[in-house]
Amino acid sequence: MAFSSEAERFVRHKFTHLVIGGGTAGLVVAARLSENPAVRVGIIEAGPFVLDEPTINVPGHLGEALFTKYDWQFETTPQPGINDRKLPWNRGKVLGGSSALNFLLWTRGSREDYDAWEKLGNKGWGWDGILTVVSLSAVPFLGMGLRTSDPFITSSISWFSSFFVREMACHRPFEWFL
Question: Which residues have a Cβ under 8 Å from the Cβ of 131 and sit 6 or more positions away?
């Protein structure tokens, strides 16, 4: 049977879980759920699914995805400390969310950040408790199958843009709603 649209194809699937929002957090939730082969995950994202968009995937195009169709183009409320000016608050409107706009960079929190969470009563959320899981997001991928163990390079490469879409999405039972 031919489908008239991607949306029609999507709604005909029987999902066990729907994740609303294909930003970094939503995709992590979907990836973790889909580790169970009995689970079928659908992801609903307002923005497009783009694999080969230079303004997102090429570091030399730093900042070009901001204020485009891939950006919700929000702004803050008036800020009293700067004469009530409103500031741009760029948020991604694309599969990958704001991580797709962040120039292929990400920063892991410090030991103190995570230990503070645990001190607030979140047992197991300190540095020692989450380091193994957090390290999963630092899969070093340089494209073309090249990998590195260099910690500087690893921390400077976006796991979403480079690894997640090309590796995970191809092997997980996701259905993309574009």
Answer: none
pTM of the model: 0.60
Check whether 176 has a pLDDT greater than 50.
no
Any idea what the Cα angle at residue 64 is, between residues 62 and 68, rounded to 5°? 150
Is residue 10 located within the same domain as residue 28? Answer: yes
Axis crossing angle, helix 111-119 with helix 127-135, rounded to the nearest 10: 130
- Answer yes or no: do 39 and 101 share one domain: yes
Q: Are residues 3 and 77 in the same domain?
A: yes
In angstroms, the Cα distances linking 174 to 19, 30, 103, 111, 131 are: 10, 8, 25, 33, 27
Which residue, chain included where needed, has tokens 């080969």?
52
**pLDDT per position as a tens digit, 126-158:** 999 988 877 776 655 444 444 445 443 433 333
Using the structure block, give the residue that is written with the tokens 């730093």. 62
Q: Is 112 in the same domain as 150?
A: yes
